[in-house]
Amino acid sequence: MAIYIKSSYEIDLVPQFRDLKLKLISGDFQFSISNKSIKKYYNELLLIKKKFTNDIITGSIALNLFGLIDREISDIDILIKDTDRYSGYLNETYGDPETGMIDNRLGYILFDFKRGFFYKKRRYEVDFFKDLGTKYIEFQFEEVKLKIQHPLEIISVKMRMSRNHKHYRDLEIIFSKFDI
């Protein structure tokens, strides 16, 4: 006789997401970019300001900027409208075929960026996704308005991919910040 124990990251998070939406609608909180996170991701924001000013920041860097999670990022996720802007997107499997793939993913490109003369060059993996009419919030960064995807949309995407431990853990952290 075999006994199967369900992994904790397979628990349904829909009620927590609903409660988060209700808290937002009732005005219990508003999303805002934290100054602490701007300092932490200053170099990444400089790259975005220089290369992707009219595009939309998404993914874990966006959730970090809102202060919803606090973990290292492995790449920078960007939503773009002009999908032919770059050639040579590197496209490896993204998402889990059983739990949810990301249909609008174009692939990633490596960018070398140097902040200034006295700084080392750093390589960034930038993952591009087609912008399908995303809601975003604008924020000021060094006299430029940058766009960042609305956190509820990012959380919704993570919900579809929540069988993946990383995404489930992010959701747990986000919901716990709001006592959900």
Q: Could you explain the architecture of this structure?
A:
The chain is globular. A hairpin with a 3-residue loop joins strand 3 (95-96) and strand 4 (100-101). It has helices at residues 14-25, 35-40, 42-51, 59-65, 151-160, 165-177; strands at residues 56-58, 76-80, 95-96, 100-101, 105-114, 121-130, 136-141, 144-149. The protein is of the alpha/beta class and 180 residues long. The protein contains 6 helices and 8 strands, in the order H-H-H-E-H-E-E-E-E-E-E-E-H-H.
State the helical fraction. 25-40%
* Alpha-carbon distance between the two ends: 37 Å
Principal-axes geometry comes out as globular
Radius of gyration: 17 Å
Low-confidence segments: 1-7
Beta-strand level of the residues, as a percent range?
Answer: 15-25%
